[in-house]
Amino acid sequence: MNDQLPRDDDRAIAERGTAPDTTLPIVVYVLHLAGMVTGGLTSLVGVVIAYVYRGNGPAWLDEHYRYQIRTFWIALLYFGISGLLTLILIGFLTWLAAVVWLVIRCVKGLKALSEHRAPDNVDTWWV
């Protein structure tokens, strides 16, 4: 029988019976995805929620908020560059790549959230 204290590891599974509410992080991921349809407006709401609630839960959940904040700022950069590149017509391809990047990043985050662990590669600019 393992009576040790839970590990203070960002990727650790939540302690037995005390799993925190993951509704808000799920909402933020969905808002990021909906931002592709709303021109980023819902994504802006999502990043505000992530900023407000980060630091209020276990380390693995805080990593999700950090991941969502980074996703917002990196997506803003990628979509902004794509907007500029549409002037030379290559922007449509980079916009499509940015959409795929955002979807993959949100799906990976939602999968990690359902497993009660931190997302992989929080600091990466890729997926």
From TrEMBL:
Q: How does it sit in the membrane?
A: Multi-pass membrane protein
Q: Does the keyword Lyase apply?
A: no
Which superkingdom heads the taxonomic lineage of this protein's source?
A: Bacteria
What organism, scientifically named, is this protein from?
Halomonas rhizosphaerae
Q: Where in the cell is it found?
A: Membrane
- Kindly provide the name given to this protein in its UniProt entry: DUF4870 domain-containing protein
**Membrane-traversing stretches:** 26-53, 73-104
- Whether Transmembrane counts among this entry's keywords is yes
Keywords for this protein: Membrane, Transmembrane, Transmembrane helix
